[in-house]
């Protein structure tokens, strides 16, 4: 088994795609107006319209109703990302903070309220975990 993507269901695909393009600096690949993917070297963030939900099972997903998942992106410098996003993101859940497990993390919400974490490993053990010199 290989974990390849996570999908966010939204009522505003274009808006959410534009948000993640801005945050990641990655241009999305669009399949159609109801589905796009932000493809990174480690995984893919898929963004689907509420119109796609019945293809799986009616009512199986609800947009803007996630209270458990944090979508995480490894970045070169979380403090620089914070400076670049300040003004675009108006409310941060936390500013860059070094966590006990060795990552410096920045937490905020996307337009649908989903939590997003940008992080940079800063301790030797955390850097080793991600094969960073």
Structural notes for this entry:
This protein is α/β, with parallel strands linked by helices and 133 residues long. The protein folds into 2 domains: 1-56, Signal recognition particle alu RNA binding heterodimer, srp9/1; 66-133, 2,3-Dihydroxybiphenyl 1,2-Dioxygenase, domain 1 (Roll). It has 4 helices and 8 strands; from the N terminus they run E-H-E-E-E-H-E-H-E-E-E-H. The protein has helices at residues 13-24, 53-56, 78-85, 124-129, and strands at residues 5-10, 29-32, 35-39, 44-49, 70-74, 92-98, 103-109, 115-121. Strands 1-4-3-2 form a 4-stranded mixed β-sheet, covered by helices on one side. Strands 5-8-7-6 form a 4-stranded mixed β-sheet. The longest helix is centred in the N-terminal third of the chain and has 12 residues, at 13-24.
CATH topology of the largest domain: 2,3-Dihydroxybiphenyl 1,2-Dioxygenase, domain 1
| 3D shape | globular
Which sequence of SSEs, written as H and E, runs from N to C?
EHEEEHEHEEEH
CATH class of the largest domain: Alpha Beta
Number of domains: 2
User: Would you count the extended β strands for me?
Assistant: 8
- Radius of gyration (CA) equals 16 Å
Give the name of the CATH architecture of the largest domain.
Roll
Give the fraction of residues assigned to helices.
10-25%
What's the main sheet like? 4 strands, mixed
Sheet/helix structural class? alpha/beta
Side-by-side strand order of the widest sheet: 1-4-3-2
**Superfamily (CATH H level) name of the largest domain:** 2,3-Dihydroxybiphenyl 1,2-Dioxygenase, domain 1
Catalogue the unreliable spans.
Answer: none
Q: Per DSSP, what share of the residues sits in E-state strands of 2 or more residues? A: 35-45%
